[in-house]
Amino acid sequence: MQQDTKRGLTLIAPPLGYAVALLAVPLIAIVIFSFWTQDYLTIDRTLSLRNYREALTDPIYGAIMLRSLGISGSVTLITVMLAFPVAYFVSFRVPPAHKSLWLFLITIPFWTSYLLRIFLWKVILGYNGVVNSVLTGIGLIDEPLSWILYNANAVVITLSHAFAPFAILPIFVALEKIDRSLLEASRDLGENAMTTFLRVTLPLAAPGVVAALLIVFIPTVGDYVTPAQVGGAGGTMIANVIQAQFRDLNNAPLGAALSVLAMLIVTVLALGTIWIARRLSGGRD
Amino acid sequence: MSRDNDPLIRLGGLEKYFGDYHALRGIDLDIGAGEFFSLLGPSGCGKTTLLRVIAGFEGVDAGTVAIGGRDMTRVSPNRRPTNMVFQSYAIFPHLSVGRNVGFGLRKVSGDAAEKRKRVDEALEMVGLAGYGDRAAHALSGGQRQRVALARALVLRPKVLLLDEPLSALDKKMREQMQVELIRLQRQVGITFILVTHDQEEALVMSDRIAVMFEGSIAQVAEAEALYRRPIDRRVAEFIGVMNFLPASISDGVVEVAGLGKIVADDLQSTAATNGAPVAGFRPETATILFPGQDAPGRIAEGRIAEVVYYGDMTYYDVRLDGCDKPVRISMRNVFGRPVLEIGAQARLSWSPGAVTLFC
């Protein structure tokens, strides 16, 4: 028995050490930092809630947090709503022999680095970019559009594109798991194709949709590169502010406090989504 | 009978292809109101395809499907007066038992209380009274089957279609459900169409049986007629056990290896075969005579080649004189009578009236 325990501990030690060193330690460090304060060039290590008071009272942080949630929420809705038809098509319409090929094709955008894809969107959306050249070329507009780059719209477009496969795959998996005879049973019991979709397919795909919502929402709230590159002043998100606190403004403790608050807000929203989804699907996991 | 004049279901000239595969070949079939009808055949014979054509899940390349006197060939499944019990039961995992049973009632007129009453009645009918609030995914196989039955019957269809409903159950449960399905069918009085590959199940449950091979119907008959007077050798081989012995025919007299000569008029029936002529008889139509026993039939001599003991029955393989292939004889075990041993001499009593000639 003792031998088994020892062997078990030996086996889990490397992944446990990895998780502690790379997840737990940084997280604890951030939390501790958030209770310290910056005193010009040195850090005052007496515990205090000053950073939190400042983060919660200065309206700029609240406004940017709200904007982050707004952008991220839009990205999530757009991505999941566009991903569902794609996943549905691959699961229900593509012959089984070709499904893996389709999934493979869907992952092609990932062959290019995230940063390169953002630069490509700059080329597409820019003042003299692809979209504006084409639209002025065919005479649809006289002046290049200025509202498609260096603002929140550009962030939404870029992130929606980047996260599409993350939304398609979990929805596809949920749709694949649906026993096709359930759809026939629904038809047999008097429902047409549309009502069958609403009463059977959609509720059974709900776990995949919820997974897609979370997988897109959680990382995009804290996305830093895209708003920095294509967001301009109007597309600044909470991660950019946190980065500025740590580097440019030399106030790591306030940056840490903002990080902790952002994490708490995302956690609450994610748990809320899961709770609502559970309620809607009748208590089933 | 009214069944012949006014069938509930009339299938005419049905043809169905899956790509190059000819799944249904010229199916003509009438099924009466209130009948317990079975589609029986080996896997791949087209019986499930035929059921799905009746339900509306498969279209046909030629022919018509009429239900209750109305042409339903191009009517979608949700508009047909048929309901199906699927082989996998297809219980909705996200709904409770009660909501599963009530699934099809959404489009039926009536207030919520009335619908709840119908659900409760349907659950009671299948022996699941009080199960309405249970989660569907927590049910056993037999219970799922009952939910599937209640869900179909609650809509009071004209026809209940059952796609191998008992194949997923163990033997005891299967036998119990056979009896219950018969009881249910008598109780609700609607037409049941059962697809099965289990000939015993078809014989036990059905009023009439259609035996199918390779996309076409070989024979439609009541259980006893099917068993006693098969129309051809395929049917005879598929239903129960039959002993086949080489035969030759001349001037109205049939010479059967091991049994001797039979006047053709004394035979039970004649049937078709693709191969050489053979005579066939069922294992229970002949008896092994014990010392001192006499019998009215004719006698054939042989030796016991194999003994299979089943408790209430014993199956003997007997090699008849003048015939290499042993015949199987089933004997009911009687108290005080020993089971014969391999190699023992056996006198067989048989009757020409139990023999079918395949030529």
TrEMBL record, chain A:
InterPro entries: MetI-like, MetI-like_sf. The keyword Cell membrane applies. Pfam families: BPD_transp_1. Its main location: membrane. It is found in: Cell membrane. CDD domains: TM_PBP2 (cd06261). GO terms for cellular component: plasma membrane. The keyword Cell division does not apply. Residues 65-275 form the ABC transmembrane type-1 domain. GO terms for biological process: transmembrane transport. It comes from the Bacteria. Keywords: Cell membrane, Membrane, Transmembrane, Transmembrane helix, Transport. Belongs to the binding-protein-dependent transport system permease family. CysTW subfamily. This is Spermidine/putrescine transport system permease protein PotB.
Automatic annotation (TrEMBL), chain B:
Signal peptide: none annotated. Residues 9-239 form the ABC transporter domain. The keyword Lipid biosynthesis does not apply. SMART domains: AAA (SM00382). The keyword Transport applies. Its EC number is 3.6.3.31. GO terms for biological process: putrescine transport. InterPro entries: AAA+_ATPase, ABC_SmlMolc_Importer, ABC_transporter-like_ATP-bd, ABC_transporter-like_CS, Mo/tungstate-bd_C_term_dom, P-loop_NTPase, Transp-assoc_OB_typ2. One of its GO terms (cellular component) is ATP-binding cassette (ABC) transporter complex. Keywords: ATP-binding, Hydrolase, Nucleotide-binding, Transport. GO terms for molecular function: ATP binding; ATP hydrolysis activity; transmembrane transporter activity. Pfam families: ABC_tran, TOBE_2. This is Spermidine/putrescine import ATP-binding protein PotA.
